[in-house]
Amino acid sequence: MMSTRQLTQLELLKELSGVAEDNVNRHLSMTKDWSPHDYIPWSDGKNYAALGGTDYDPEESQLDEVAKAAMITNLLTEDNLPTYHREIAANFSMDDAWGHWVGRWTSEENRHGIAMRDYLVVTRGVDPVKLEQARMIHMTNGWDPQGKVAQHTEQKMTMLHSVAYVTFQELATRVSHRNTGKVCQDPIADKMLQRIAADENLHMIFYRNISAAGLDLVPDQAIRSITDTIKHFEMPGAGMPDFRRNGVLMAKHGIYDLRQHKDEVVMPVLRKWKIFEREDFGPEGERTREELAGFLDELEAAAVKFEEMRDRSLAREAAKREKAGLAV
């Protein structure tokens, strides 16, 4: 049945409160509590200079350049939790099931930064001084998940934009963490990041289910929010130091690239919501869906172009290594 109604922020929160409560209970029944300290090789640690030891030496790190870039990017992203908490609390409120979720989600997310930082500091995987400097800059800058969307749309931002954004962002983070664990070539790091990725997946499911309920409730309004989010999506680490450089390295080596973004993040969620099968959109919703379809075609073309450029770049690097080997 076609529906074209629009709801305010407060009306959306009220109408979806029952769905939120059901999904909080679902999450609590599925999640597994864990402790960051269980994933850290503490026996590998030693004092830094302030306590009579030695400070970081790059030669101590067992991580290659790609793994370092990915770990730093992922950790600094997790570090900005106060900004994310503020945004989600403002959009969801702290009442009833919404408030319980905000607190629970924030607590679970906090473990990720604790575990990753402890691992890097104990194993001397990266320079802890530079890491702290970058954390200070990134957290001072903060992050506005709806800022880029707001620049490109006249529609007032609602919680539907927020849940659409975090649905895709949580899944993207899961992919990034999982692939980072693989490139670290350390079973301890891999196990830790698998655990973190599992959390991110459950968080994604919560937000995906809220978005699905929003689609059923106000189809045209929800598809507009989803389309805005996909068209102007940006990871929450965009403002951190060296984000572009590190992002290029991560994309080049298959940790997170345009192909993964489209095929492993955007499309699975859209299929779950049955976006291109629904028959409940009004005229405006139909136009928005066509707009989304057009953008997905552009995204596919961009992914193909990136893959071609990456393949050429990797081939040139391989040729240089081979030539250098022969010269030796």
SSE map:
Elements lengths: L8 H7 L1 H14 L34 H15 L1 H12 L3 H28 L4 H14 L5 H6 L6 H25 L3 H31 L1 H13 L11 H10 L5 H15 L10 H45 L1
Describe this structure in words.
The chain is an all-alpha fold. Helices cover 72% and strands 0% of the residues. It has a single domain, classed as Ribonucleotide Reductase, subunit A, CATH 1.10.620.20. The protein contains 13 helices and no strands. One of its GO terms (molecular function) is stearoyl-[ACP] desaturase activity. This is Acyl-ACP desaturase.
Offer a few descriptive terms:
lipid metabolism; stearoyl-[ACP] desaturase activity; Ferritin-like_SF; 13 helices; 328 residues; 0% strand; lipid biosynthesis; mainly alpha; 72% helix; Ribonucleotide Reductase, subunit A; globular; metal-binding
Strand-residue proportion: under 5%
- Unreliable runs: none
Q: What is the annotated CATH architecture? A: Orthogonal Bundle
* Mean pLDDT over the residues: 92
Whole-number total of structural domains: 1
Helix-strand pattern, N to C? HHHHHHHHHHHHH
How many beta-strand segments?
Answer: 0
Separate helix tally: 13
CATH topology: Ribonucleotide Reductase, subunit A
Helix content: over 70%
Query: What oligomeric state best describes the polypeptide chains here?
Result: single chain
InterPro entries: Fatty_acid_desaturase-2, Ferritin-like_SF, RNR-like
Organism: Tsukamurella conjunctivitidis
Keywords: Fatty acid biosynthesis, Fatty acid metabolism, Iron, Lipid biosynthesis, Lipid metabolism, Metal-binding, Oxidoreductase
Pfam families: FA_desaturase_2 (PF03405)
